[in-house]
């Protein structure tokens, strides 16, 4: 495992004819590369789908779906949900289940002015870089529950392993006096070749550009000419 | 189902034929990316805005989710 921090290599020490000063150059490059690979990305930009369609009656469940291409470094997803009950409905609660994670129950306040914001962490069973169906199932208890908005991002990693999923660099390969070698990436991620390939593997996409979702039990429906379902158009800007 | 963009001028139409919920096959569209020569990154000082419309063809279409994302 390798700790990371945002660093800038001391380029003044990288000059033709100078010796490699691992403490000030290669180690900085390793930390900076790990910092790039450990950063979080947004899977679902804060959005509301269609609020009028996103309400569950007491006892009802609804499942929302989003789709995106995840990153291999992620081991957790963080969901930020804004939930509200109808005015003067008291004692309302909501079960939250993201993917295959354990159910988490939260109280839900009544009326928009008291809308509850819930942060919920979904541990992932396995790391995966793949086109993925993100799901969220809510169950209302004691009254109506409306999902006002949702945001989901991958949790930033504190450490990265020298593995095919993490692309972390072996820190011992960057110590002063360490020999320079060309590892068999990604089986061995170290030295100059490892750092260069881990840098090339950095996945800093704006993963989620536009997401719109309502529960499958209450979809947008149309039988007739084109009708916009997304309300105001939403800006997107790719890298 | 039709996805349109305001600045990149895309009109991308999906014909939905399934009778139960399933993600349709993804298609690639080329929306605006950052113009690195300007401070706000927008191309032509305009946002590229995405809108989605649906219509039935003598039947009812149901849509539960739409996703636009960057591929690796």
Average residue pLDDT of chain A = 89
| Helical stretch tally of chain A | 2
N-end to C-end Cα span of chain B: 25 Å
How much helicity do the residues of chain B have? under 10%
CATH class bucket of the largest domain in chain A = Mainly Beta
Tally of domains of chain A? 2
Strand content of chain B: 25-35%
Q: State the total count of DSSP E strands of chain B.
A: 5
Largest interface, Cβ cutoff 8 Å: A-B, 42 and 37 residues
> What are the low-pLDDT stretches of chain B, counting only 5+ consecutive residues below 50?
none
Structural class of chain B: mainly beta
Number of H- or I-type helical stretches of chain B? 0
* Silhouette of chain B: elongated
> What about the largest sheet of chain A?
5 strands, antiparallel
Computed Rg of chain A: 23 Å
Average of pLDDT of chain B:
92
CATH level-3 fold name of the largest domain in chain A: Jelly Rolls
Total E-strand runs of chain A: 15
As an assembly, this protein is: heterodimer
CATH architecture verdict of the largest domain in chain A: Sandwich
The Rg value of chain B, from CA coordinates, equals 15 Å
Structure description:
The complex is a heterodimer of chains A (239) and B (72). Chain A folds into two domains: 80 residues, no CATH class; 113 residues, Galactose-binding domain-like (Jelly Rolls). Chain A is 10% helix and 35% strand. Chain A is mainly β. Chain A has two helices and 15 strands. With 72 residues, chain B is mostly beta strands. Chain B starts with a strand and ends with a strand. The relative contact order of chain B is 0.34. Chains A and B meet through β4, β12, β13, β14 and β15 of A and β3, β4 and β5 of B.
């Amino acid at each position: 495992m390798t700790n990371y921090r945002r660093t800038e290599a001391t380029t003044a020490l990288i000059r033709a004819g100078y010796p490699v000063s691992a403490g000030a150059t290669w180690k900085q490059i390793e930390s900076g590369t790990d910092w790039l690979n450990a950063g979080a990305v947004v899977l679902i930009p804060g959005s509301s789908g269609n609020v009028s369609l996103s309400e569950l009656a007491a006892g009802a469940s609804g499942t929302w779906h989003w789709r995106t291409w995840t990153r291999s470094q992620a081991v957790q997803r963080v969901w930020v949900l804004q939930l509200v009950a109808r005015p003067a409905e008291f004692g309302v609660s909501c079960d939250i289940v993201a993917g295959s994670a354990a159910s988490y129950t939260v109280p839900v306040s009544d009326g928009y002015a008291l809308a509850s914001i819930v942060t919920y962490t979904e541990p992932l069973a396995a790391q995966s870089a793949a086109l993925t169906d993100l799901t969220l199932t809510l169950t209302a208890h004691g009254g109506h529950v409306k999902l006002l908005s949702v945001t989901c991002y991958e949790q930033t990693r504190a450490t990265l392993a020298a593995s095919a999923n993490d692309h972390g660099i072996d820190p011992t390969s960057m110590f002063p006096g360490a020999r320079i070698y060309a590892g068999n990436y990604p089986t061995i991620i170290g030295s100059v070749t490892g750092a260069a390939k881990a840098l090339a593997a950095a996945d800093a996409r704006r993963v989620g550009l536009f997401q719109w979702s309502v529960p499958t039990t209450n979809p947008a429906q149309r039988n007739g000419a084109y009708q916009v379902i997304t309300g105001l158009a939403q800006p997107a800007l790719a890298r | 189902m039709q996805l349109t963009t305001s600045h990149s001028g895309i009109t991308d139409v999906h014909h939905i034929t399934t009778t139960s919920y399933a993600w349709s096959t993804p298609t690639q569209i080329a929306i605006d990316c950052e113009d690195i020569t300007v401070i706000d990154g927008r191309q032509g000082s305009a946002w590229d805005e995405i809108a989605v419309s649906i219509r039935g063809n003598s039947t009812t279409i149901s849509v539960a989710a739409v996703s636009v994302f960057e591929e690796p």
